[in-house]
Structures are given as C-alpha cells and as structure tokens.
Amino acid sequence: MFTLLFSLCFLSSSHSLVIGDKIAEKFELPKRYVKESLSKAEIVDQVTDLISKPAEAEEWGDYKKIFVNEQRISMGRDFYRKYREELERAENEFYVPSEIIAAVLGVETFFGRYTPKFNALDSLYTLAMNFEERREYFTYELGNLLVYSYKNNINPKEIRSSYAGAIGYPQFMPSNVLKYAVDFDEDGQVDLVNSMSDAIGSVANFLKQHGWHYSDPTAVSVVYGSEKLTGEWMSISSLKEKGVSFPFGLSGHKAKLIRLKDEGKDIYWAVFHNFEVLKRYNPSNKYALSVLLLAVALE
C-alpha cells in the first residue's frame, strides 16, 4: 500500500513538473514563477465531480427552467433598468443587442449575484492534472491564468472562479480575459470581478469579435422538422421544400435545424449564424437558446 501511494504521489509530482515546464516555455514565463505558483495549487476533488455532471446534460425542458424563469426574468428587468446606459452604449459601440448582453450575464452569473466558490488556480490545476479528456485545454487555460496574474502582479491563489476556472461577472476563461476583456468604464484597469461596466463591454466585445451580425436572425421554432435534416446548413427555401414549416418568412438566410428533448418529445429550432456566435461562449445548443429566450423576455 505504501509503495502504491508513493508511486501515485511521484507520478502526480512528475506530471506537475511537466505541466509547469510546458507552461513556462509556451507562455514565456519565468520558470521560477510558474514553479512557485503551481506549488501552491491544490487538487480539489469536487471540481472533477462537478465537471462530469454539467447542467447541459439535462433535458431541454429542465435546463430551460434553470435559466428562463419568472425570478430570473424579473431580476433581469431590474438589472436592465439599473445598467441601461452601459448596455445601450455597448450596443452602440459593438453592434450587439443590449438584451443579448444582459441575458449572457443573466445566464452566467445571475446578473452578478453569483458568488464564485472556487479558486481559479486550484480549479484549473485540478483539471489539467486529472481531467484527461480535456487536459490540453485546461493546461492552456492554466497557462493563461498565470500570464494574467504575472502581468498584473496578482496572486493567482486569490482569483476566485467557477469550478471550471471561469472568472468574473461574465465568467470568462483566462484566455478570454486576456483577449476580449475591455476597460469599458475607462478607469484605467480591466476588472471583470468588481466592475459591471467592464463586464458589459467585455461580453459585447467577445460577441463582436466572434462575428455577431447586428439585426440578423438568431433562432426560430419550427414544426415538421426531422432528425435527418439536423446539422446541415441549408437555405430556408430548401428546408421548406423538405417540409419544414416556418412561422414567418426568412428568405435570404441559411439555417440549420437542431433537435432538443422536452418532456420526452422532440422539438426543432432553425438556428442562424448568430446562434453559432453565442455557442462560442458555451458550445451547448441549450445554453445559446436559453440566452436568446431570456433576452426576448427582457425586451
């Protein structure tokens, strides 16, 4: 037993050193800084438990109840009134609808009311070490976290996050903090943890940079869809020829059908380019559709 435990500890330590060397080389960080930072990181078993049971595994009907309900809509309308100026300024500067920006923040952190329960360093270290399925991705995000903390002279152990390492009101992964976060309140620093204004501008910038097309459609519920038609981009006329019924005309756009389960029944939506942009935030169809439905409720 002692030999087995010693071997496991040695392997874990060895893997940690390999990760540290890779991060230092790839991100051009001082090896000493990376080594010292990772020496403070801890494995958190709850992190691997949670990532294996994401909300996206729920049926659409159950998932929707979490993010699109009377309480969240009411709080969203209060949020919109409170931050109307920032939301509308972000829409004007980034050409992303203010309701979409608000809805993303509503789904991500309950309009800023969510309090992160984890430490970003521990979460990302745990996943880089133990979540083999996406080890490279979380090692990359761990590296970006260390770049962010090093450049800003922040102790990475003090950065709070979700169990997956997402940071601040908009729940940006560290790489997205570095790429898309903006100083929207113009106070000289980017702060996604304490500045809702920065969060609003950063969400808008993220969607713009990923190709949001202002005034283009996002998704529409359709009838007479079929599983064999899902996943392929087609013209609206082609989908109509194949029997799909649309509630109103959308000629000139390409769409693809997605299928969701609601109380055991198949339901179909036609989704457009902007829907795929939302999925750059979270690759789940259920996530993107929840954002859209919440946004409509805030209009």
Account of the 3D structure:
- Helix 10 (174-180) crosses helix 11 (196-209).
- The strands form 2 sheets. The chain has a 4-stranded antiparallel beta sheet with strand order 3-6-5-4. A two-stranded antiparallel ribbon has the order 1-2.
- The protein is globular and about 65 Å long.
- The termini are far apart.
- The chain has a domain at 2-50 and 116-195: Helicase, Ruva Protein, domain 3, CATH 1.10.8.
- It is 54% helix and 9% strand.
- By secondary structure, it is an alpha+beta fold.
- Mean pLDDT is 91; it is low at 1-11.
- The chain has helices at residues 2-26, 31-39, 45-51, 60-67, 70-82, 84-94, 98-109, 120-130, 135-151, 174-180, 196-209, 236-241, 273-278, 285-298, and strands at residues 118-119, 160-161, 219-222, 234-235, 254-262, 265-271.
Question: Can you tag this structure with a few keywords?
Answer:
299 residues, Helicase, Ruva Protein, domain 3, 4-stranded antiparallel β-sheet, two-stranded antiparallel ribbon, Membrane-bound lytic murein transglycosylase B, MltB-like, Lysozyme-like_dom_sf
Which fold name corresponds to the CATH topology of one domain?
A: Helicase, Ruva Protein, domain 3
Classify the helix fraction into a percent range.
40-55%
- Estimate the mean pLDDT confidence: 91
Query: Briefly, what CATH class of one domain?
Result: Mainly Alpha
How large, in whole angstroms, is the Cα Rg? 21 Å
The amount of beta strand, in percent, is: 5-15%
> How are the strands of the biggest sheet laid out side by side?
3-6-5-4
Q: Which spans have pLDDT < 50 for at least 5 consecutive residues?
A: 1-11
Q: Decide which structural class fits the backbone.
A: alpha+beta
Distance between the termini: 62 Å
- How many strand units? 6
Indicate the overall shape. globular
The arrangement of helices and strands along the chain is HHHHHHHEHHEHHEEHEEHH
